[in-house]
Amino acid sequence: MSIQQLNPLPTVSPADQAPKILLVKLSSLGDVLHNLPIVWDLRKRLPNAQIDWIVEEAYVHLLEPLKTTDAFKGIDHIIPVAFRRWRKSLFSIRTWREFFAMRKQLQATTYDVVLETQGLLKSGLVCALAKKSNNAVVAGLGNATEHSGYEPLARMFYTQSVHVPLKCHAIDRSRWVMCSAFDWPLLNRNEESPLFYPNDFVAQLPPLLLEGLKKTAQGAPAPYVLCFHATARAAKRWPNENWVELGKALFSQGYQLVFPWGSPEEMKVSALIASQIPGAIVPRAFSIEEAYSLVAHAALTIGVDTGLTHLSAVLGKPTVEIYCDSPRWKTEGYWSKAIANVGDYKKSPFAEEVVQAVRVAKTA
């Protein structure tokens, strides 16, 4: 790995220290999920470390299953931040009161290591606000990867600027920064497959019984397939007619199709697609906490490159990820045989390719 060392600092030794570590990954849903493995990586090597994570308030629930308990050691403290909300009301007294409360939390602990895996100016600002020991290592991204947002000014707040390959999976990118900070050999994804959530967390999730969802004689949900068609960028969407063709094929196999949405416009698209597929439903809006249950009990999740599709992949559930206008190498699920990835940058897959991927994910 290539590291631009801004200040000569002593190497943090995991053998004789229990460092206090701050993880800075603020958003968004998929990015936070793909940063989870470094919590497990750190715990494996530094079981007595204090590990805190600062994250946008909307994504706190993604981290709560990894909070340290009597039976499990993961994240010690989750520090919520609300940059997205604050920027809409910069002159509000409440905004500044909340900002100073957040800063107080950041300065309640003296951190030995800060891992900034976002590469944005606002996440660099968080590094500056955090209280750090005299010899603290602040490691962050030294360059952009292709098709990723990056703000070079963030490097001003690092002591180590870590240069990663231009084509680097989101998980590997975080691991590069972590290994640089601790002077560890770069982790091999084949030897240390990423971990996300404890197995017992996934197993204990209750089903989410939505209106219109069919039930078995025992009252449990009948087999259903989640279809996440919506995404923030229109170019990443898969054509509606493909969803209809796929939905009809899955209906003929005994599945009920569910088309979630996140905005009024997306709900209209969900309704349009569902109206052409027998038995398909458009559910009510649901929270991230409810999304865990909905995904965990689905027979299969199919979706474009968006956070909720990645949630299914990190939960280890049968998943088909559809890439239309983003590169597969950046976020594709590679850690489970139950994950099938189709399409690629500027290579939207045909419906038959997705049908074949469904067979792969279902039989894994």
From TrEMBL:
<dbReference type="Pfam" id="PF01075">
    <property type="entry name" value="Glyco_transf_9"/>
</dbReference>
<keyword id="KW-1003">Cell membrane</keyword>
<keyword id="KW-0328">Glycosyltransferase</keyword>
<dbReference type="GO" id="GO:0009244">
    <property type="term" value="P:lipopolysaccharide core region biosynthetic process"/>
</dbReference>
<protein>
    <recommendedName>
        <fullName>Lipopolysaccharide heptosyltransferase 1</fullName>
        <ecNumber>2.4.99.23</ecNumber>
    </recommendedName>
</protein>
<comment type="similarity">
    <text>Belongs to the glycosyltransferase 9 family.</text>
</comment>
<keyword id="KW-0448">Lipopolysaccharide biosynthesis</keyword>
<dbReference type="InterPro" id="IPR002201">
    <property type="entry name" value="Glyco_trans_9"/>
</dbReference>
<keyword id="KW-0472">Membrane</keyword>
<comment type="pathway">
    <text>Bacterial outer membrane biogenesis; LPS core biosynthesis.</text>
</comment>
<dbReference type="GO" id="GO:0008713">
    <property type="term" value="F:ADP-heptose-lipopolysaccharide heptosyltransferase activity"/>
</dbReference>
<keyword id="KW-0997">Cell inner membrane</keyword>
<keyword id="KW-0808">Transferase</keyword>
<dbReference type="InterPro" id="IPR011908">
    <property type="entry name" value="LipoPS_heptosylTferase-I"/>
</dbReference>
<dbReference type="GO" id="GO:0005829">
    <property type="term" value="C:cytosol"/>
</dbReference>
<dbReference type="InterPro" id="IPR051199">
    <property type="entry name" value="LPS_LOS_Heptosyltrfase"/>
</dbReference>
<dbReference type="GO" id="GO:0005886">
    <property type="term" value="C:plasma membrane"/>
</dbReference>
